[in-house]
Amino acid sequence: MSDRSYDPIAFELFKNALFSIADEMALTVHRTTYSAVLKDNMDYSTAFCDGQGRLVAQGLTLPSHLGSIPEALAAVIRRYGDDMADGDIFALNDPFEGGMHLPDIFVFRPIFVDGQRLAFAATICHHTDVGGRVAGSNASDSTEIYQEGLRIAPMRIYERGRPNETFFLFLERNVRVPDKVMGDLRAQLAACTIAERAFRELVGQHGAERTRFFMEELLDYSERLTRAALADLPDGEWSFEDNIDDDGVDLGKPIPLRVKVTKRGDGITVDWTGSSPQVKGAINSTFSFTRSASYCAIRSVLPAGIPNNEGYFRAIEVIAPPGTITHAVLPAACAARGLTGFRMVDTMFGALALMLPDRVGAAGDGGNTGVSIGGYDATRRPFIYVDFTCGAWGGRPWADGLDGNSHMFANMACPSIEVTEAEQPIEILCYELLPGRAGAGRFRGGVPFAREYRMLEDSGVLQVRSDRRVYPPFGLYGGQPGAPSRNAILRDGAWAELPSKFCVEFRKGDVFRHELAGGGGWGDPRERDPALVLRDLRAGLLGAEAARRDYGVVLTPCGSAVDGAATAAARAAMPRRSAAIVRGAEDAA
Amino acid sequence: MTRLRVSADIGGTFTDIVLLDGEGRLRTKKVSSTVGDYATAIVQGLAEALAEGGLDAGAVEEVLHATTVASNAILEQKGARTGLITTRGFRDVLEIRTLRMPRLYDLAWEKPPALVERRLRHEVTERIAVDGTVRVPLDEAEVEAAVKALLAEGVQAIAVCLIHAYANPAHEKRVGEIVRALAPEVTLCLSHEVLPERKEYERTSTTVINAYVRPIFEQYLARLTAELGKGGVSAPVLIMQSNGGLMGAAEATERPVHAVESGPAAGVIGARALARQAGLPRVISFDMGGTTAKAGVIEAYEVSRASEYAVGAGIMVGSRLLTGAGYLLKVPAIDLAEVGAGGGSIIRVDAGGALQVGPESAGAHPGPVCYGRGNMQPTVTDANLVLGYLNPHALVGGALAVDAAKARAALEERVAKPLGLPVEQAAWGAHAIAASNMIRAIKAVTSERGRDPRSFALVAFGGNGPLFAAGMAASLGMRRIIVPPSAGVFSAVGLLCSDVEVHLTRTWRRPTQGLDAGALQAACAMLEAEARARLAADGFPPERQDITRSAQLRYQGQSFELTVPVPAEGDVATRLEEAFGAEHERTYGHRAGAGEPVEVVALQVLGRGVPERPRMPERLMAGTEGPPQPPRAAYFGAAAGWIETPVLRRSDFAALRPGPCIIEEYDATCLVPPGARAVLDAFGNIVIEL
């Protein structure tokens, strides 16, 4: 490093300052936003790009937005080039021109210093509604983009500080909850304004020339860190396949996701060739979202401290053929593509578990279930409740999967039950862990939970996107798969089962119940510490029969201690389980 | 006989005792904390301090105390065995938390274990609706069964948290009666009494923590009082709350949940007292010790408070956006931003070739390389030693010997060589980067809230605060730094400045449009009556009770509130809306149009017990000063280079002196950089002007 031609200390100070601006933007969005999807699920991101549109600093926000900003900003630059001025602001949401799915509205503000475009402040927010046929604009059973809502091509929404009224009126008239959407958009604009002010101060300290140089160096620095970390990983090629149950339209038709991870030296390639062609249902992923999923999984096996920017991406090549579910083209519907993203991350983790058996665990519940309940009250005022939920991790090579913890791809929080009941015509009847559903293993999978929602308004629409019904979360190295997910509705006193993805009328008094899939286990269940089996048993998370059947753990007659001798005998009679990948009972031995 | 006021601040390593006599003379004593039996260190330290001053234990008129007993019980999972009774269907609210984790991309994350394990969490059939109506009646037989099961498990405490109990506490009260009847000896905490607010996780967590620490806290206070009594001190013991007010021992026993973060709060209260005395309405408090640095803000002579915080989250969280660490407490607390940067923070060069400081820390044990206790990774203190800022032979008034050569060698080998820099430049860089990390804490309480740090003065304390203050102030564009006497034990000094306070909050949700001002004032009056009753119980007659009413508001649909005062008269709704809009604009840089619906979310009452006479004397006099020290070379960056720098005592600043100079004191070292000037003010503070 001694050949360095600049001041490393000034650089570090610059880097701290720039990332703190990106975080400050994120805080502004967080604290002033209106919709639950932003304030609780934190489904938004903020970032800083250089004048050419390269991502320099992403705030600590949603991992599933990691790869999206460069593509979106490139679309703006393609359309407007140098036709930008101080005070301009641009927006877009079109998945086929820079966006990811319609609810995600991107906002960019170019920042000029002495007439030169030095940077862009960027925010993405998932909006509660952008119109279309189903409230919440995220139905999984739409079959073309035109059903999903308002498409915004890269567009100038402020010109030299003056709002483009056509845009704002158009938006306002085409969404179901304009107060929320406009309020959230205001938060995005405020974050960009705050960023602009802070960035100008930074340029004031360092000068334009050095600012440009440091932003460039920040990319190189991330690349160096990434490549150094990748060089420490083993070389080779690892393939993994997982399946989405179906797309909610072609029911029962599995959708394969195939990935090949190739690591050579200090670079890595992620190739999704062989994955399903794009599907009719709305779970098609844009290429940018596929990149996000790939980046997120690799990031999780690298050391902490690598700045989130394009330098990190340079060491990672992602391949996804157009026309597939991993790189959808017009007119694919993609509103509910979150599911595919989560499954791509799980598929990546599968491949990385083969590469790094002692560092990566089995599959979790499969990524978040989306529940949307929307309609109109007696005075025709619209209501929309959108909840994304997930919570069971797969067992890990050193510890159990977490119970009630968000998925790596989207660090979301659950909305408070009491707040939900105060704001929505819904009553939540339970939110509790489900016994007997975690995949058995030396380290068991995470315990999933159930939620029940009762409708209090006369009528509305219930739309659910879930999965892991047919293809449960896989176990690893002898660990067993988790139990599948479940949906059911209580109507007129009787429970009826529902498919994993559906859209139905939700009437007053109806109760919808969702059960997450259990996390997959890791390692041979016979090797699990009997004391941990006893702990789960006494916690009500495991039955005595399952303890014996799945773990070979036998209790003393009083039921409060492990019978050591009987346990040893029961375990000796059980088959050894060591299969690397356990997708179902047939793989178990 | 002179009256003595005593304060005791327990920290992880040291317990600080401060005695203040009627003339304003401070006597300080630092003794090692006695982990596991904290009372012993206090009683011994106090006895020694009294003996050194030739003072009589009977002269002590009050003992003010900040303690880590409650937070340690939580962090070490050593609270009482606690059971929880909750609504059927919601057994796991405490364990599921908010689902979120404080670290992204971390496959090794482990959630903090629930303070009540699942088998001790019992459900009962009952349900109250959001409007307070009973949807499902309480099944009392199930309650009895649950209580008996918990007793059979040997619980010492039972927490009860039922859904929407804040809206209608009837079921919780009935559960409480049944617990009382079956188990009169068990500690009982009902959620509507501990925290009558909406949000089940926050309420459950707070109620459980109260139950979990209460038996421990009760025992501790009883023992402390008894031990003090044996030593001849029979004065009342007052406990510091996380919100910066004191509370009596009886109240503290009932609601220890308010005393969890008491130490850090005391420092900010000290800074507020200093601000009021010096006539500085806007002050940032900056407290830096061995492992963490904390920043707080004072505006219009008042501290700023947060409505919730997480115990043990502190330095695990790199950003305020990442929640989910630690144990959540929804009680008012002085708003502090904390970063993992201190004298023990480790300096290294990362794989990308950048210089990094922290968050890894060598702590107090083994501590910096210069302590010679086996750590070979250079720390911030080692860098300060190389730069000539710290005494090259010993710290803490000579009590702690240091090896400067060792520090220099470690920094040379591990930092300077890989970077290709001379060692003093590497040390200078590490010092600057540590400062820039800590600047993030200051920004978190200022610019992230729409406040411009340049309009504030910086009050620096803690063992390392006065060493970094001037440099940080310079990069933030701040002009004035104040270093109080006894800066290294300033939290204990802050205790002496605090008043008895009662903070009450109640969920009260109404749109401001068509607001019934009478109903709002009536709800405030109910809170006020409770606050007055508690103050009266602490011995404050009505004429010495000071009450302020405030309200938390937000735009309908938002989920973060801003607090504004409740006007006593006039068009209450319009004035609330206007105050809220102005605060929103100030904090977030924008406000909605006039037609945007605003709602009141909660009402707050703060009751303060006004002391009979001023708590603090006009001027504090710190203890005796050490002998004069020779000047030494200190390094101030490539441009200024090495400068022969005088090492001075506080009393040397009676007249204005230009930097550079170093002030060495028993408990802290202060740096006045070149270009700055420093002078002693009328209150014994060193004031540095940039």
TrEMBL record, chain A:
Which residue intervals define the domain Hydantoinase B/oxoprolinase in the entry? 7-525
One biological process term from GO is: glutathione metabolic process
One of the record's GO cellular component terms: cytosol
At the top level of its lineage, which domain of life is listed? Bacteria
In the UniProt record, the signal sequence range is none
Report a single Gene Ontology molecular function: 5-oxoprolinase (ATP-hydrolyzing) activity
Q: What is the protein name given in its UniProt record?
A: Hydantoinase B/oxoprolinase family protein
Report the source organism.
Neoroseomonas eburnea
Automatic annotation (TrEMBL), chain B:
Q: Which InterPro entries match?
A: ACX-like_C, ATPase_NBD, Hydant_A_N, Hydantoinase_A, Oxoprolinase-like
Ranges for domain Hydantoinase A/oxoprolinase come to 203-501
Q: Name one Pfam family in it.
A: Hydantoinase_A
Q: What biological-process terms (Gene Ontology) are attached? A: glutathione metabolic process
Q: Where is the Acetophenone carboxylase-like C-terminal domain?
A: 517-683
For this UniProt entry, the molecular function terms from Gene Ontology, in alphabetical order, are:
5-oxoprolinase (ATP-hydrolyzing) activity
* Sequence ranges assigned to domain Hydantoinase/oxoprolinase N-terminal in this UniProt record: 5-181
Q: Which GO terms describe its cellular component?
A: cytosol
Q: What is this protein called?
A: Hydantoinase/oxoprolinase family protein
Protein species of origin: Neoroseomonas eburnea
